[in-house]
Amino acid sequence: MSSSSSRGAAATGALPQRVHIVGAGLLGASLGLALTRAGAAVTLADVSPTAAQLAADMGAGTVAEAAADTQLVVVAAPPDVTASLVVEHLRRLPEATVTDVASVKGALLDAVRRSVTGAELDRYIGSHPMAGRERSGAIAARVDLFEDRPWVICSDEATPPERLAQVVATASAVGSTVLHLEPDFHDSSVARVSHAPQVMSSLVAARLARMPVEGVALAGQGLRDVTRIAASDPGLWTQILAGNAAEVRTVLMEIREDLDRVIAALALEPGALAVLAGAIAAGNEGQQRIPGKHGQAPTQYATVTVVIGDEPGNLGRLFAEVGELGINIEDVRIDHATGRRLGSLDLFVLPAHVQDLVDGLLARGWRLPDHAEKRTEADTPNEGQR
Amino acid sequence: MSSSSSRGAAATGALPQRVHIVGAGLLGASLGLALTRAGAAVTLADVSPTAAQLAADMGAGTVAEAAADTQLVVVAAPPDVTASLVVEHLRRLPEATVTDVASVKGALLDAVRRSVTGAELDRYIGSHPMAGRERSGAIAARVDLFEDRPWVICSDEATPPERLAQVVATASAVGSTVLHLEPDFHDSSVARVSHAPQVMSSLVAARLARMPVEGVALAGQGLRDVTRIAASDPGLWTQILAGNAAEVRTVLMEIREDLDRVIAALALEPGALAVLAGAIAAGNEGQQRIPGKHGQAPTQYATVTVVIGDEPGNLGRLFAEVGELGINIEDVRIDHATGRRLGSLDLFVLPAHVQDLVDGLLARGWRLPDHAEKRTEADTPNEGQR
Description:
CATH superfamily of the largest domain in chain A: NAD(P)-binding Rossmann-like Domain
Oligomer: homodimer
Largest sheet of chain A: 5 strands, parallel
Radius of gyration of chain A: 24 Å
Low-confidence stretches of chain A: 1-11, 293-299, 336-342, 372-381
Number of helices of chain A: 14
CATH architecture of the largest domain in chain A: 3-Layer(aba) Sandwich
């Protein structure tokens, strides 16, 4: 497969000035907000007039059908209606470039190909912004949803460069990092990083359905993490899994092979321990390859842990003094344990700011048990279940 | 199975005054800190003199062998040496009650039974505090590690009530919620809520080891959550899985059955979509049964979202004013998106404080987009991978 990545800022081409977004959900509405801010004139449509109007009220654009001079159409609808909406707009708007945000690209392209060909087909450029959040719908829309997120664009030799530039400029305008990937490579990748993990999280969570409550009470943070996405919407995920069935099946077959080895090893015949250790070690290797939020490594931010009293006012004093130091806090994590007299707070800052922060806080009398210790996410996170 | 739960406060029996802890890791050192605070005289031993001294320096007790008048011995050593250390101390201290913190109880009890019997065996009471954190070793010890966490105690008819009361009083003194469970029920439960989830997280993460980097770049928060515990220590987990092999095997076999059904459904024959939707829906059902941190439901805290500028000083002003309101912030979550002009901050407070916080912040001119909206963790969390 061939693929290349280009930072949004480096992309060529002007941002389309007239954009029509089909679907006013989380992605469609957020894109409308971001493109409006970027200076484009955005029109919105949704099968739900309420959703479209809500997105418009939030500043995501104007509720209207696509104008004849629309330069770019973005289909941000559920996966199972995306192909027909793409085809519909390719035909309705003979001048427009049409893209979409669906999570599966190969089958979608095949479906579009079955309806349109030639120059008409060349105006379709599939894309997949890897963005989202826990809440759904226009009400959860955010102007910065796509910032520093990967935006996959699938084009081929036949794609007119000026049309490709329109989609690249759009992704860049909302702050995404553009990844040019072939549809099949994209689909096999998301099967591995998203679709198969969703299935396995759901199967693990399903084991809890019939447990006595005294057993579920033993759940720890590890289980909560592994099963968080098991709360995902069955309707949406049935569409996603069916749309990428072959690739998801390949990954699940690999998992089943490893699973069979582990199950066999649990008979504890000679050599079994090496198989068990090997399975956990292979997981270490894979887990360490995962980039952090926004593609940053988990250690991108340095952590400064501060001991604080667990009473009102202390946080205020701490953050006021951090503000005086002129240092921006990227993230904050409070230790959850309750009922303690002393608690601790992790401040996440850019490594370059650590020394100033540490010096400044120490000078102001704060207790920093381990100074600018890096996040140690590789420390046996499931220790809690020993 | 029979099981009952009693809140620590309700437990009877006096806290043992002379406690010996074998193993100065995260659990042993934290227990030493908590029992010392509770007024017990704690002695510590560890195969590593450095670890023992570090724990002592932190206030977890005194480095010494168990005195003859020791009332309670707590073995907090790795699983594979726990049985022999339990037996050793049962024999060395004919008056003492001996317990442990290992994550597998049935096989351990069998191993102890093979070495000791009768009155000697009756002095052993297995337990398993379900506590831990991401960091390991004495350096990560915390006096409040066990607070509001389940502490499983395994006893039977032969257990002398006064000795059982000692262990219950110990668990209660460190703030744990005591759960009386039979060893087999405990082991089958942790296989489901901890051991099998660890295996599946590792197998999912292992799929990433050979991926092209352009593919791994598509990872989102869902994958990070599912695979976080895949960073766990292979040595430790080989011991845990081997120690609970039969129960883990049972759960993994169930997962494989479901997995086979999903793999077959991905051939997309008639009826396939119902199988896929059923698998995700079953995961919803199981996931909803998981209690939150400290056994609290995820909605225990209410969220107040505040719009803030992403510059130094704003956090200080916000927390200073929250402090003025006399409201304690249980947790804080900053929206990670970078480079934005406006960001938002989620303040987690007890529901009773929401109205005061909202009124107070609005009165001070802060923007609260959705006021005291409850956390909605069940909202399609994997939306990000659409």
